[in-house]
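Lay summary. Proteins are chains of building blocks that fold into shapes, and those shapes determine what they do. In this project we predict the shape from the chain. Here is one chain we studied, written as its sequence of building blocks.
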Amino acid sequence: MTLEKLDASLMDEIRALEAEGRAKPPERVITGYVPPEASRGPRYRLRGSDTLFIRMNSNSYLSLSHHPKLLEAADRATHGFGVGPGAVRFIDGTFAHHVELEERIAAYMGRPAARIFNSAYTANLGQALAIASPGTYWIGDALNHNSIIRAMRIAGVPRENKAIYPHNDMEALGRCLEEVPDGMDRVVVIFDGIFSMRGDYAPVDEILRRCEPHRDRFPKGLVTVIDDSHGIGAYGVTGRGTEEHAGARADIVVGTFGKAFGVNGGFVASSAALVEAIRQKSDTYIYTNPLGVADCAAASAALEIADGPEGAERLEHLHAMTRRFREGVTRLGWESIPGPHPIVPLLVRDTARTRKLVRHFYNNGVLVVGLTFPVVPRGDETIRFQINAAHTEADIDCALAVLESFGG
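And here is the predicted shape, written in a compact code that computers can read:
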């Protein structure tokens, strides 16, 4: 038995993706890390290039992944317990580090309980499996992350059991709630906190206001779910994310340790009953090995830093660098989407020009992400910048100088 026929058909599919502009380019390979020095932040080496690059496409908003406390915690846990858990959580694969991290993230998010996953993606799938039922109706934002869309699919939500409202359109959300079909006994309103392509946020306070009149309509509840993976740790006065910025809290929060906290893994935080339902019902929790103890120990150390004076300093610096970059983009006459989040979109609105500008940044030692059709609609072509706490004023000014030098 050979793969010749399968390979040929798969290559046809890949060529079709290329023709549609949907194929991913070759992956750049990071081969080295150069620590901060003097007025500049860290730099990265890539395979095939002698240039030292500034990363302005990293989710590591607090720049903790090289922090000595995280490295020491991961090393100590690994030497104590090994590099892998050896089993799923139910079969003696639960270590003290898993429990400690769940307790820490529940306390950080102000929830009674939490359950950790290998990623926020699998956490979204897990929470959906825990709360889905034939009588559950789902309402979501049109720009929700792929993991939320997949969560509905893996939970078997039929077309007639869901509605999508235009991005952040609260009038439309109100209509979706009014039009929930008869026979539904539970409603889930689910949305991103920070929308990763745009850097704007869900108006959690307004979402809750729209939901409130309908709370008593459904015998098994109306619940709100926020995936705040890009917000937690990087957004709000103390880094508690979109809920803190909006002054309102969802019933269930999904998040990640792989962005602001600089490690790996995801979580769901909510009531003790919801978390126990995840433990009992969620395939993406039950049937896969958990995070290794090194990730758990490092994430716990990151939470301790984020919740202390150093974390506050890093967050303040992150916000200052974000303002500096946003003000520079405006000064140079480029269009963006306003807001305080360190995701800063540059609206280029042309595919060829977007790709040319990405190459211009690369040629000048700055790594950025270009988003073109069909990832975004035609006319919304964008370059996404992500500011990190390790960026210095000199780094920000360097990136702005590269942007200013672009001839178009």
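What the prediction tells us: The first helix runs from residue 4 to 20.
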